[in-house]
Amino acid sequence: MEANIHQFWLYELDYISKIKVAPNLGCFLEIELNKRLAIQPELMFFFRNSGIRQGGREDDFQQWGMTIPVYLLGRECIDDGIWYFGLGAYTGFGFNARMKNAKTALYEEIEGKAIMNRWDYGISAMLGYEYCDGIQISAGLHLGLKDQLDAGKDDATVINKVLTVGMGYRF
Fold it and tell me: Are 107 and 119 in contact (CB under 8 A)?
C-alpha cells in the first residue's frame, strides 16, 4: 500500500497545479540476480488527485489507473535488514480521468480526439528498507516523459510527476 503525491505540470502560465495525496495499491515480484542485485517488476493501481487553479477558478484533477514500473534493484544487508535502491522505467494506463467540479471526462473522445492520452511512460527511482520480518518502507519517484494532452497539446503540456511513500510486506 502506498500513498502518492501527484502533481502534473501544466507548462502554460495561466494554470497552477497544487500537490495532493492519494492512495496506491499493488504487488511486486523480485527476481534475484545475485545477493546484491535484482530485477523488480511491479503492478500498481493508483488514484491521483491534483488541485488546478486557472485565474479565479479552482477544480480537482482526478485520475485512476495502473502503472507497471520495472526496476534494477541494488541491495545491501545491514544489521537485520536490507536497504535497497532501484532505477528503472514505467508505463501507465489511465482507466478514468476527470475534472471533478466541471464534470469533464478527460479520456472521452470528441470528434476523434480526447483531452488527455490514457498512456504514460517515464523513468522511476525508489529507495527502501526491509526489516527482517518482511515489512518494508519505501519512497519512490515517477517522472513522466510523455505529454498527457491530446487535444490542445499545441497550447500547453501536461507531464506527470509522482512521489510515492509506501509500506509493504514480502511473503
Answer: no
* Four-CA torsion 43, 8, 123, 82, nearest 10 degrees: -60
Query: Helical H runs in 7-134?
Result: none
Q: Which residue is it, cell 485512476?
A: 64
Using alpha carbons, select from 164, 20, 36, 33 the residue that is nearest to residue 90.
164
Residues 6+ apart with CB under 8 A from 118: 65, 93, 94, 107
* 68-108 residue pLDDT tens: 999 999 999 998 899 999 999 999 999 999 988 877 788 98
| Bridge partner list, 98 | 62, 105
- CA–CA dist 159, 137 (Å, integer): 27
List residues bridging with 111 in a β-sheet.
none
DSSP-based three-state secondary structure for 106: coil
Q: For residue 11, how far is the Cα from the chain centroid?
A: 19
pTM exceeds cut of 0.85: no
Backbone angles phi, psi at 108, to 5 degrees: -70, 125
Let me know how long the chain is.
Answer: 171
